[in-house]
Amino acid sequence: MMKWLHTMASSAWFYRFSGKMIPWLMGIFGVLFLVGLYGGLVAAPADYQQGDAFRIIYIHVPAAWMSLFIYIVMAVYGFIALVWRIKLAEVLLISSAPIGAAFTFLALVTGSLWGKPMWGTWWSWDARLTSELLLLFLYWGVIGLYAAIEDKRTASRAVSILTLIGVVNIPIIHYSVEWWNTLHQGSSVTLTDKPSMATEMLIPLLVMATAFKVYYAISLLIRTRAELVEREPNSKWLKQVIEENNHE
Amino acid sequence: MNKMTPFHDVYSLISSEFLVAFRHRYEALNPLLFFVLVCLLFPLGIGPSPQLLNTIAPGIIWAAALLAILMSLSNVFRTEYDDGRLELMVLANHSLVLLTTIKLLAHWCLNVLPLILLSPIIASALGMSFDVQITLILSLLLGTPVLLLVGTTVSTLTLVIPQNGMLLALLVLPLYVPVLIFGTSAVNATAAGMSAAGPLYVLAALCVLSLTLSPFAIVSAIKIGVSQ
Amino acid sequence: MSEFLYMGGYAFHVWTSYALAFVVLLINILGPSLRHKKKLQRACDIQQLNEIQSNDT
Question: What is this model's ipTM?
C-alpha cells in the first residue's frame, strides 16, 4: 500500500500517467460540457419569475461550487505537503490556485451579470458576495506569495501554511446565507435534502458541475506537468520523456 | 539561581521583552497615534453630523484599530530576523512556541492595549453611548488578539521577502475581514438595542482558536524563514 | 432561433456570461499547454548544455 502511494507521489509516474489521462479527460469534458450547454440553454424551461436570465445559473453556480471545492482540495494538498513533505502535493497546490482564482472570478462576474437584471444592482456588500470576493483575494495571495519567494521549496511550504489558515473562510462563505440576512438567495441544492428546484432545471446544473470538475482535472494536470518540468529540468525521467518525444 | 523552573523561564522572557520595549517606548506610540489620527480624519472629512458619526463610529474605530495592528505587524520578528537573532532563538534550548506566545503577549500589551484603553474617549468623541462602548471594548479585547496572531503568522511567512509591505496587506485582508465584520456587528447590535452575544461568542471562539493554534503555525513559519 | 438569441430580453447578460465562461475555460487550457511546451523546450536546452559541458571536461 505504502509502495503504491509512494509510486503515485513520484514525478516520473505522475508525468506519464497524466499524459495518458489528459486526452480521455478532454473527451469526457467535451461530452459533459455540450450536454450541459444544451440542457441549460435549450432543454430547461424558462423560469416563471426570472425568465431566461436564470440560465446564467448553469455557469454561475458550478463556477462558485468549483471555487470552494478547489480551495478545499488545495488545503488538503497543503496539509499533505506540510506533514509528509511530498513534492508532488506542493506542485498540485500551486497549480490549482490560478484555476480556483479563475472560477472565483467567473462566479463573481456572472453573479454580477445576473444580479443586475434581478436585483437592480451590479454589486451588493452582502455576506455571500463579500466572502466570495475575499476568497478571490485569498487565491491571489497564494499566487502572490509563491511568486515573491525565490526558493520554490520554501515558497511551497509558506503557501501551504497560508492556504490552511485561509480555510476558515470556506465555512463562512457556505453558511453566510444562513447566518446573515442576505440579498443572495439561500441554498436550493444541498447534499442532504431534496432540492427545491425542478428536475429539468436541476439535471443540466449537475451535468455542468461535473463537467467543471473534469475541466479542473485537465487544467490541473497540464499545469502540474509544466511546473514539474520547470522544477526538475535535469532529472532522468525528463531525459527519457524528451528522448521519446524526439524519436516520434 | 540554581532552581530554573519553567516559571523563571517565563518571567525572564516577559521581563526582557518589556525591558526592550521600554527602551524603544516611543515606537509603541506609533500604532496609537495612527489609530487616533485615522479616527480623527473621519469627522473632519465627513462632517460633524452627530447621527451620521454615531452610525459609522463602530466601523471607524474597528477599521482604525485593524489598520494600526496591521502596521505594527512588520515589527514583530523583523529586527530579530535581520540581525540573525532569530536563528539563535530557533537553535536555543527554550521552547520556541513559548517564546513566541510571550513575545506576542508583550506586543499586544504594549501596542494594542493602549489603543483599546483609548477607544472609549474616541468613541465618546464620535457620539457613542456608554453601553455601546462597553460592547466596543469587549469586542476589541476579543478581536484584536486574533488580528495580532493571524497577522503575525502571515507576516512571518513573508519574512524571507525584503519588501513585503503591500503583499502582507493583501494576504491578511481576507483573514481580517471576518473578524472586522463580527466585531462591528456586535457593536451595532448593542447600538440597535439587541443582544451582542452572538458575534461576541464567535469572536471569543476565534480568539481561543488563534491563541491555541497560531503559535505553532508561527513557529513553523519561523523555521521555514530561518532555513533559507 | 432569434428568440433563442434574444433570451427573453436578457440577451446581453446571458450571452456575456456564457462567452466569458468559454473564454476563461479556453485560456486555462491553452495558456498552460503553451507554457508546458516552452518549458519542455527549455529543459531540453538545459540538458543539451549539460551534456556538452560534461563532454568537454
Answer: 0.88
